[in-house]
Amino acid sequence: MLHRPSPNFGPRRDGLTPTIIVLHYTAMPSAEAALERLCDPAAEVSAHYLIAKSGVVTRLVAEAERAWHAGTGEWCGQHDINSRSIGIELDNAGDHPFPDPQMIALEVLLEDIRSRWPIPPENIIGHSDMAPGRKSDPGPRFDWARLARRGLAGPTRPPQDQTCFTTAARAAGFTADVASEVLLETTRLRFAPWRRGPQCADDLKLYHPI
Ligand SMILES: [Zn+2]
After folding, report:
1. How confident is the model at residue 160 (pLDDT cuts 50, 70, 90)?
2. Is 89 part of the annotated catalytic residue set?
3. What is the pTM of this model?
4. Which of 47, 132, 166, 200 could lock 69 by a disulfide, CB 3.0 to 4.6 Å apart?
5. Residue of 97, 39, 167 lying closest to 187 (CA atoms)
6. CB neighbours of 8 closer than 8 A, spacing ≥ 6?
């Protein structure tokens, strides 16, 4: 693992410790360009880790500190996600698949982080999951089902209430207060990025079957 300390961090608030991991893509042309931005004091953004397409992992902020990656949002009724989470940036411009070495490095890093902090699979989420309508990373090309099969993403079971889409989405963790169309787009991005058209019965399946 490489180390490239970013100045963009602060203390976690209210004594909070990591219980969530947020995955991002960089939306930049290269890992080097992303590292420069994540270390630029003027940009006021950072993450704990960046994983290059080659699988090389760079640590920018210590896990005990609060990195600036999530911004405004909500997951499972919880706010200040930066104070509760570890942020991982994946080198990806946003329009292409994530190479195998990068995914393998991500899986190893997730296991490693979970050996230090109690983070359940259902709290390994995308930036879009906690910021519906505002963020779309890690995007439709990210292989969530692969992580779910390894117990590194959830939920893996259907929600209890499968009659009302909004209720089911909230039960699955999507609690941010947004219009139902935005919620539908967000949950599709996560569970069925190929799906189009009006809401259908399959939209109530807010999980990755194993
Ligand atoms: Zn992001």
Report:
1. confident
2. yes
3. 0.97
4. 47
5. 167
6. 38, 39, 40, 41, 43, 44, 45, 46, 61, 67, 68
Phi and psi, residue 126, nearest 5°: -90, 160
Q: Catalytic residue among 89, 107, 181, 185, which?
A: 89
Tell me the CA–centroid distance for residue 121 and ligand 1, in Å: 19
Domain assignment of residue 182, yes or no: no
Distance 163 CA to ligand 1 centre (A): 31
Owning domain of residue 46: 2-154
What domain count does the chain have? Answer: 1
The residue that leads in pLDDT, 132 or 155, is: 132
Neighbours of ion ligand 1 (CB under 5 A): 24, 127, 137
Residue at 63 is within a domain = yes
- Does residue 52 lie in a domain region? yes
CA of 135 to the centre of ligand 1 (A): 7
pLDDT by residue (tens digit) across 136-153?
999 999 999 999 999 999
pLDDT at 210 over 80: no
Distance 168 CA to ligand 1 centre (A): 24
Give distance in angstroms: CA of 128 to centre of ligand 1: 7
- The three-point CA angle 127-161-208 to 5° equals 45
**Number of CB atoms found within 10 A of residue 117's CB:** 15
pLDDT for position 157: 76
CATH (domain of 68): 3.40.80.10
